[in-house]
Amino acid sequence: MTRISALLALSLFFLSACKEEPRAATENMTAPAETCAASLVTPLIGEPKSALDGLGIPEPLRIMGPGIAMTMDHIPERTNIEIDKSDHIRRVWCG
After folding, report:
1. Could you say which of 21, 44, 63, 90 would form a disulfide bridge with 84 (CB–CB 3.0 to 4.6 Å)?
2. How far are the Cα atoms of 44, 55, 74 from residue 22, in angstroms, in the given order?
3. Nearest-angstrom CA–CA distance, 2 and 66
4. What is the residue-averaged pLDDT of the chain?
């Protein structure tokens, strides 16, 4: 019986090393700064593509229509704008 108790105590001792450390509170973390001009274009979602004319969106910029192949490279500074079949702005994101 003492052997079982000793093994149990030893097992608990080793398992205590597996205890996860508490994580720091995330309340003070700030959101990462936007790296592209998505905030400039996002209010135009649902508007015709012509709403982009004269807006002065900084490069790099990628405007994609329906059925257009898109590379999967990620460039954080690039503003991506997706246009739907009815020629309206559908989605905007950085990358």
Report:
1. 90
2. 43, 47, 33
3. 73
4. 84
- Tracing tokens 């959101």 back to the chain, one arrives at 31
Picking from 50, 51, 56, 64, the residue whose alpha carbon sits closest to that of residue 92 is 64
Ranges in the chain, pLDDT < 70 = 1, 5-33
Could you tell me which CATH class the domain 29-94 is placed in? alpha beta
**pLDDT value, residue 2:** 75
The pair of structure tokens assigned to 56 is 């002065």
Helix (H) or strand (E) holding 50: none
Contacts of 65 (CB under 8 A, 6+ apart): 83
